[in-house]
Amino acid sequence: MDAQVPGTVHTDLMAPGIIPDPYYRMQENDVQWVDTCAWEYRKEFKLPAEWKNFRTVELIAKGLDTFTTMTLNNTVIAETDNMFIEHRIDIKEYLRKGKNTLSIVFHSPVERAKALESQYGRLFVDIEPWRAYARKAQYSFGWDWGPKLTTSGIWRSMYIEGRNDARLRDPFVKTISIDDDHAIVECTVAAEKERDKTYTINIIISGDERVIEQSHRFGNDEAVLRIDIPQPRLWWPNGWGEAYLYNAVFQLLDEEGAVMHTLETDFGIRTVRLLREKDEAGESFIFEINGRKIFSKGANWIPADNFITRIPDEKYERLLRLAADAHMNTIRVWGGGIYEQNIFYDLCDRLGLMVWQDFMFACGEYPEHPDFISGVETEAVQNIKRLRNHPSVVLWCGNNECEYLYCNKNPGCNPDDMKGAVLFRDVLKKVCEQTDDTRPYWRSSPFGTGHPNDVSNGNHHQWEVWSNWKDYRQYEHTRPRFVTEFGFQGPANRATFEEVTIEADRHIQSKVMEHHNKQVEGTERLYKFQSSHYKVPEDFQTFIYHGQLVQAEALKFAIENWRRSKFITAGAIYWQLNDCWPVSSWSVIDSSLRPKAAYYYSKRFFAPVLVSFYEAGEKIEVWVTNDTTVDIRGRIELTVRTFDGARQSTDMIDVVVPQNSSICVHTIQRTAYTKFGTDNSYIYAGLLIHDILVSENRCFFEEPKHLLLPPAKIDLKVHKTDAYSYTLRLRSKVFVKSVVVSVKGIDTDLSDNYFDLDPGKPREVHLTCNKKVRNLKQKISLFNVS
Q1: Which of 173, 440, 495, 753 is deepest in the core (most CB within 10 A)?
Q2: How far apart are the C-alpha atoms of 188 and 663, rounded to whole Å?
Q3: What are the angstrom distances between the C-alpha of 77 and each of 59, 97, 102, 157, 159?
Q4: How distant, in Å, are the alpha carbons of 52, 83, 308, 361, 489 from that of 339?
C-alpha cells in the first residue's frame, strides 16, 4: 500500500481503512497489534546519469522511528536505533544505473526494547519498564494523559544529496557581550572540505536596516569571527520588550571568489543567566535575561498529536500564539516527547516565548552501557547544534522526573545511585558545555540540593495537589523557588468529545469517557474536587462546565499565590498547555484547539499587572503584582456588594507599585464587612491606571456551591465590526458568575470568556469567526453558574 513520508505506520494503515481511528471511542484497543510487527517501507527510484560524477552521494534521513535495517539494492547500508538522530549515509558505491531499490524495515519497537531489557536488565521505570531502552518518544508507550500508540515510520524528511564542492555546516552565532552602544557576537561555522585547501568565509549580518559584512580566510575545519554590532536591538521575552531577530548568512567562497555553499540562520542578541544565590528562604532560581530578573509565566508542552507527522504548521502557530496572547513568556518542552520541529522554535523566537528544553528522558532509570551512552551523545550534539541559534531556548535540562521518582521510591538514596545518573550528571552536562556554553544546563526537572524536589532550592514539581488527592487551597502552603509542573484536570470541551463519541457515551462515567481519561482514578478525582467546590450535576454539559471551572480556579489560586511571593518563587509553569488527543486532562487548550475555562483565566492571572486577594485569618490583604519595567501609580476601587447590586461601601485607594515587584497595598478586616451574609455578597477590587481598568478580582466568602446566586438576566447587544468580527456587550442588573459565551455550531475566537458580570457594569467581548454568520445573536448562547 502507499505510504506517506514523513509519516507513521499507524497513519498509513488508517488511510486505506486497514485500522480504525484509535481516537474514536475505545478503538485504541483495536490497534495494539500494530507495534508488535515489523513493517517494510520500499522505494524504487532512478538517478540521472550525471549523478555518477558527483564526488559524494549521501542518503540523508532526518528522522527514523526507531529500530531499522536499511538496504540499498539488497546491501545493508545502515542499522538505526534512535528516533532523535539524523543519519547521513554515503551510498555512492551501492548505486546502480537505472532502477535502484531502497528498503527500510522498521522492527517492532516493543519487541526490540524488551530484548534489550532481557540483555541488560530491568530498570526502575514508570509505565512500560522496557521503554527506557528505546530512544524514541517515551509518551508513545502510553502516559497518564495519552493513549498507547507506539509508532514506527519515516517521521522526518528523507532525500539523496550529491555534491562535488566543499560545504558548510553547524553555523552558530552567540552573544559575547552587550553594552549600551555595542554588542559583540561570535560567529562560528564548520566546513567539510578538501584537505590543505584555503577558503574564504563571508558572513553577512542584517537587521535594524543595517548590513554588516565580514570575511575571513581559513584553512582549518572551523572558522571563528567576532563581529561588532552597533546600537543592537535585543531579544526580550514576551511582555518585556521586542523579541528582535537578526539574520546571518554564511558563504563559503573558493579561491576565485565564487560562492560554493550558503547557510542562513536567524539569531537574537541576548544574554541569559540562572541566578542561584543564597537568601533567607534558601537559594534562588531566577532567570535573568539581558541583566533583568524575569518571573517565568507559562505552561508545559507535549506533542500536539500522537501522530507527530500530521501536525500542521498552523497548529503550532495557533497554540503558541494563544500562549503569547495569554501573557505567557515561558514554554517547557517536556522530556517524554520530542525535540520539537523547527517551526516550534521559530515561533517561540518571534513570540518571545522562553523555552525550557528537556532532553528526551522521562520518569525512570536509563541504561548506562557504552552503546547507549554513545548514542545519547550523538543525539545531544545534533539537537543542540540544531537549536542553539534560537534565542528562545534559555536552558537545557537533563530529564523529566527521573531522580525525583527514584528518590521517592528509594527513601534515603542519593540521585547518583540511580541507573542513568552518569547521563544526566556527566554526559549531557559535558556535551552542553562543549557545544553551547551560552545557556545553563540543569540536571533534571525537578532537581536541587538534598531531595530533588526540595522547595528551598532548585526547581519543584507540585503534585501533592490533585494527584495525591489534596485540594488546590493547599497550594498556599508551599513557596517553591521555581515551579515547573503543577496542575488540575479539566474535561475537554463538549464539541471535542462529540467528535469521538456517540450520544450514549456522553456521561462522564461511561466506559468511553473513562477511557478518555488516562490517569488512574482520574474520573473519581473529577467528581471529588467538583463536589468540593461546585454542585455536581447529572447532565454531561454542566459537568464539563463545572469541571473546567474547578481547573481554572485551581490554577488561578496557585498562580496568584506564587506571583505574590515574587521572587521567592520566580516561575510558575503549569501542566499543561495542549493535548495530543481528545481527553480529560490537565491541558488548558484541548486537542481540537478549543480553549477551556482555564485558558481564559490564564489571560487574567498572567497579565503583566495583577490585583489579587490573600485571605490571612481575620484579615484580607489586597496585593498588586507589577511585571512591567516602570513603577505604576493608580487607584484601586474596593467595593463590597450583594449579588443583587446593593453596596455596603466603596473605597478608592491610591497605590504606587515599583517596577518588577509584588506588594501588599491594603488590608481589610473581615469584621468590617458583616452587614451582608457570606453567601450573597463579595468584595470587588479593580485597579485603574489613568482611569483605565487594567486588572480586577473578586473575593467570595463561600464556595460557589453555597452561594445564593440570583437568576441571571443578561442583556446582550451585538455590533458587527467587519465581515468576520463582532463586539458583544453584556450587562446585568445582578451578579452573574462565570458567564460562557458560545456560538452554536461555529468555532470562534473570543477575547474573553468564563468571566463574572458585576451588577450594572457592562463588559465587552470581541468575537471573530472564520466565516460569515447571519443573525449571530440568535446563534449565541450564554451559560453561567446558577
Answers
A1: 173
A2: 46
A3: 10, 18, 10, 18, 15
A4: 36, 10, 11, 11, 25
> Residue 226 and residue 229: Cα distance in Å, rounded?
10
Superfamily classification of domain 165-267: Immunoglobulins (2.60.40.10)
* pLDDT higher than 80, residue 673: no
Could you read off the pLDDT of 520-535 as tens digits, one per residue? 999 999 999 999 999 9
Q: List, in sequence order, every residue forming a beta bridge with 182; answer none if it has no partner.
A: 230
Greatest distance between any 2 Cα atoms in the chain: 94
Segment 431-437 long-range contacts (CB within 8 Å, at least 24 positions apart):
431/377, 431/380, 431/381, 431/384, 432/380, 432/384, 432/396, 435/380, 435/381, 435/384, 435/385, 435/388, 436/172, 436/174, 436/384, 436/388, 436/396
Quote the CA–CA distance of 365 and 377 in Å, as a whole number.
Answer: 17
The string of DSSP letters for 40-70 reads EEEEEEE--GGGGG-SEEEEEES-EESEEEE
What tens digit of pLDDT does each residue of 430-484 get?
A: 999 999 999 999 999 999 999 999 999 999 999 999 999 999 999 999 999 999 9
Return d(Cα 349, Cα 332) in angstroms, integer: 14
pLDDT, tens only, 113-162: 999 999 999 999 999 999 999 999 999 999 999 999 999 999 999 999 99
> What are the cell numbers at 259?
560562492
State the pairing for strand pair 292-294/286-289. antiparallel
Is 2.60.120.260 the CATH classification of the domain at 9-162?
A: yes
Backbone angles phi, psi at 663, to 5 degrees: -140, 155
Q: Strand order in 292-294's β-sheet?
A: 272-275, 286-289, 292-294
Task: Indicate where the chain has its CATH 3.20.20.80 domain(s).
Answer: 290-606
Residue 485's alpha-carbon distances to 356, 363, 516, in angstroms, are 12, 14, 22
For the 711-786 domain, the top CATH level (class) is mainly beta
Q: How many CB atoms lie within 10 A of CB 492?
A: 28
Q: Give dist(CA 699, CA 681) in Å, integer.
A: 9
Q: Is 289:236 a contact under the CB 8 Å cutoff?
A: yes
- CATH 2.60.40.10 residue spans of the chain: 165-267, 711-786
What cell was used for 588?
Answer: 488548558
Q: Using CA atoms, how far apart are residues 607 and 297, in angstroms rounded to an integer?
A: 10
Q: Which residue has the cell 546502480?
A: 96
Indicate the DSSP class of residue 377.
H
Q: What is the fold, at CATH topology level, of the domain defined by 290-606?
A: TIM Barrel (3.20.20)
Show Cβ contacts of residue 607 under 8 Å, excluding neighbours closer than 6 positions.
327, 694, 695
Torsion, Cα 10 15 20 24, to 10 degrees, reads 90
- Whole-number mean pLDDT of the chain? 96
Q: What is the pLDDT of residue 669?
A: 86
| Cβ contacts of 270 within 8 Å, gap of 6 or more | 175, 178, 234, 235, 236, 289, 290, 391
- Residue intervals in the chain for CATH 2.60.120.260: 9-162
- Strand 64-65 with 153-154, pairing: antiparallel
